[in-house]
What we know:
Elements: H1 4-20, H2 22-49, H3 53-61, E1 66-70, E2 79-80, E3 87-88, H4 98-102, E4 116-128, E5 133-140, E6 153-157, E7 165-169, H5 170-176, E8 183-186, E9 191-200, E10 210-212, H6 218-227, E11 240-244, H7 253-261, E12 264-268, H8 269-273, H9 298-325, H10 327-335, H11 340-372, H12 374-381, H13 392-409, H14 411-419, H15 422-427, H16 438-460, H17 463-488, H18 497-508, H19 510-544, E13 553-558, H20 565-578, E14 586-592, H21 597-600, E15 610-614, H22 630-636, H23 639-646, H24 649-652, E16 668-670, H25 673-680, H26 685-692, E17 697-698, E18 708-715, H27 722-727, E19 733-740, E20 742-743, E21 756-758, H28 760-765, E22 769-778, H29 785-797, E23 802-806, H30 812-844, H31 846-854, H32 859-906, H33 920-940
Parallel strand pairs: 5-10, 7-9, 16-21, 17-20
Antiparallel strand pairs: 1-11, 1-12, 2-3, 4-5, 4-11, 6-9, 7-10, 8-9, 13-22, 13-23, 14-22, 15-18, 17-21, 18-19
Amino acid sequence: MNPLPGWRAAFRIARRDAARAKGRSALVVAMIALPVLGVTAADLTYRSALPTKAEELTAELGSADARFTATSMGPVKLQQLPDGISWNPPEGAADPTPEEQARPVDVTAAFPEGSRHVTERSVPVSVTTRHGITDTEITELRIADPMLRGRIELTDGSFPRAADEIAATEKFIESSGLSVGDRVTVRGPDQTYTLTGAVELPADLRADSLYALPGSVIAPWQKTADGDKTVLPPQATDLSWLVQGPSGAGVTWQDILAANEKGVVVKSRQVVLDPPPDSEVPMAEHSGGFAQDTELTAAALTVTAMALLEIVLLAGPAFAVGARRSRRQLGLVGSCGGSRGQVRAVVLAGGAVLGAVGAVAGVGAGFGLTALFRPMIEDYTGNRFGELTVRPWEILGIAVLGLVTGVLAALAPAIVAGRQSVLESLTGRRGIRRSSRVLPVIGVVALTVGIAVAVYGGISGSTNLVAGGSVLAELGVLCCIPVIVGLLGRLGRRLPLTPRIALRDAARNRGRTAPAVAAVMAAVAGSIAIATYTSSNAAEQEYDFVPNMTPGTVALVDSGGSGGAADLALSRAAVEQNFPVGGGRADIGRVWAGSDCMDYYEEDGAGCGTLELVKPTGKAHSCPLKGKGAKELALRISADEHKRLMNSPACMDENYTMVAFGSDEHKIVVGDADMLSTYVKLDDPAAAKALAEGTPVLLNSAYAKNGEVTLKAAHIYNDRDKKNRALHPGKARTTTEQLKVYVAEDRFAATPGIRMVMPKQTAERFGLHVEDNGSIYPVTREPTDAEQQAAYSALQRAGDHGYLMTSNEQYRTEDDTILLILALFAGVVTLGAAAITTGLSKADAEADLTTLSAVGAPPGVRRSLSGFQCLVVALTGVLLGTAAGLVPAVALRLTDLRAALEDMRADPMESAYTPIVMPWETIGLLALVVPVLAGLLAAALTSSRLTLARRAG
């Protein structure tokens, strides 16, 4: 028998039923469309933001055909690969002589006949701004040439046309406070230019640079430097040529081979996009290929698997409630002779119809939202899309996925509908059905096995097991939801009327509540998994991060050549007047032995003195992770034990040491109690008293033995250091002093740039030299671009004898932003899922609401009951989703831990710290704010008026 006529009738019934129940159908379509929308928008954004090879070439070449550059080897024969990046002399060729390397390369002679070109060259500069001074880069390039279109675009004003004109990127204009028409002066040669236009680089919207005509910056600067030795010459890059080949021909591989003969390397658009066979590439036989890593990361694979499960769970409740609302119609099908298979076909056809509509709507909305938010996405990624990149087969696959998952989501309701008797369907009676006792057992087993598989996958490094175990664990939680919902009814015994009814209604109608809770759980689980992994990874990066300074401080350091205290006072005033400093400053000094190595350093090391803080040997002083036995120890210890050892004073400076404030490797600075409170953050009266009495404060206890340190000084004086040489005419001498110190707590061993603070009188007592070297200030916030530029300008006016050091901790805010975005995204998805599922549940429970009104319940009960129903669904789903989302996050961190332990055992000084950090802000937002907000919105949007209903039956 041909089944097509039966399915045709089923689709016709499904289509008419969907058109009749427009509100319910819209909610069902929204359930399916939401995840399809998200996947479509993500696919379009990813494909569009990821530049193609052609777009990368446009970002580098503009509309030119090739870039020609000379090498440092002179006009000797070369070989290169088609990518224009890798090159070397021919195999077996002799190295060029210094004379050959010094000979200039005639690059223009390598151009194809009939081509034209523009030159490009850059130089780092310091320029004036509206706020003061800033460092940037000027590129000499005729950007008005059509050859630069696609790479540099004019957004305001006009291109430079004269030698005294310049253009700037929008980022530079924004940070400098300048505008078109203002004047910009290049410091050093004091060349002034008029800012004629603003440009943007589509491939790098954050570029901060200037553009001038060729020959208008570097050549005059060099001429000024030649005539005035106080002006430093420009440190320009090598010249390169952008070439446009003959019309229709471009720059071919044969042109490149001819250029290689003259010592020129070429990157051609035509050759990169369509490379020649290896048989025509002389260098190919001597170069190895590069393997491409096509394996998905563990995080991406797990999130993808959970996203597919979320689509099914979001759509499932819709069809379950839809089947319940259509049970009378399905009963009529059975009473007219329809078989159970035909009843199931009607429900499945409804899934296919609404799934198709939801898939199409989701794809269309994904396109629309991507186009709408495209400028915002481009600003976030830092590059223009160029064009919206659409992979038709991927979009079709997403749509088919929505359709298929819609049918699969309708499968369980179809089976249930097929099992109902015709009498129950026609009368609307639900019958008495006990909850399955097998399903919770299956759920507990699946949850246990899933967690075990995911953890084992994390330990063994198998991403497939992590993904499979996470999905299995989430399915196990789903199977347990009916039992969990049933327990909710017992929690409402002592609650007021409305929440008690909401809890008991949820427990009594588990078939309606469980799918709604499952939908919210699925929406939250993925976000919690990503948020937990992100916050854990951020904690790991923060632990590995080595700060250059104590956070919340800024340092003014003498750059040498100052006129003493007067110049330093002017430099301090420049900082204090322009930076957001708070509190008092801490002055810092340098200490050294013999002649100062900053002035008299020689290659053999004999031209200046040395100062060393000798580290004792022994258990409390030597790092066990370095030297003999370190690898054997690394095989036996855990990651936590390794972290404890790495943070111990003995290992603190072994792997990497931050040198600052002109202190050299000994990291001894001259200071007083203000240094301890402002920079070290050591608020200890005993330590301050020790400094005042002439006792140094040691921050790393590993250098102390019995309360003393060994200070070794080589007093070597250079003959060019006439003043000190006259005072110390004898031979160089080495002294070793035992110095009593105040030892700070171990946690202060990690203070950036300082190992010991020495009083000035103590240094002078031991025959060491001391001078003021600057000041450290606490700042109330990060200085803005304008404040930094103003401070640099003020320092320059003060004689340019100092430079500023600021903390490099700004990157941390990016992780906070990511977590906030995740929390907002999860909150919106939870609100949407809770609202949609509660709306469907409300439609299914209309008879109960009518009964409440019939027995005299106030109109407000209807509104508050809807709010509490939504609260119950959202809160239960969020809590279960949080628990389910932790499984993949923990498993993925175990994968990272395994890799970190392998690296640590290969190199014991490598960090193995792999924490698991809970994103409490995200969890708090989802567990507290979102459910309450969902309940309030549901109550506010529910009508309290009673609508007349016909008698059922």
